[in-house]
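Today's session is about reading a structure prediction critically. Students often jump straight to the picture, but the first step is always the sequence itself: look for stretches that repeat, for charged clusters, for runs of hydrophobic residues. Only then move on to the predicted structure, which in these notes is written as discrete structure tokens rather than atom positions. Here is the chain we will use throughout the hour.
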Amino acid sequence: MNIAVCVKRVPNTEEADLSIERAGKDIAKDHLPFRLNDWDGYAVREAALLRDKHGGDVTVITVGPEESKEVLTRCLAMGADRALRIEEPKAADGRLIVETLFRVVKDRSFDLILTGVQTEDDNWGQVGVSLAQMLGFSHASIVTDIDIVTDRVTVRRELEGGIDEVLNLALPAVLTIQTGINEPGYVSLMDILDAEDKEIIDLDFREIGVPDAPPDTRVDAVFFPPVGKMAEILKGNPEEVAARLTEIVKKAAGRS
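Below is the predicted structure for this chain, in token form.
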């Protein structure tokens, strides 16, 4: 069972004081720490569990700058066997990322390709399903359980309204992994130090035939949403609060 996991290095914006860069097309990232995308971490852990159960190996792949080796090293510490980094095209959008990944994985005989459902920075959710379409593989998104039997995989996936769906797919397949599919294992300092001795292969996107062309998607502006009206605290006894609330609701509904 040869498994590829597509991962991404993303800025950690939790509890951060965010600002917009001068060009107005992205957040300022020079002061932010970076980490492995949360959904991708679950995908790496699931790949390692499947490898341990069925044999084979796990390759983690990222499209990103030199600094992305930090998250690849963490993936190796989490149980991946090898890592591959592709220098990304300038201003790459979702389509260029998918095309880059496609050219890397198409001739490598993977039985299963895992991605996170989406990334925490762009939230496009395009890579997994688009990669499956380009490869001609069966696929499922928002997967919360995986069971492999010979040349088929049964998956459980989330739908709207708390409903789950069970699908049986032929291998090879591409699956986008939802958080909570497993319990992330603890990564010790010793695991990370051992992982630093493992090889990370570097490629340039030009080496694999990806054109250095402008992306199809252009970001015109990034901005903070306007501040809405502050909440109004209704004071008084229950009768007074009820009367005031009724008045507010009627006014919002356009009734006098």
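Discussion point for the tutorial: The chain has six helices and eleven strands.
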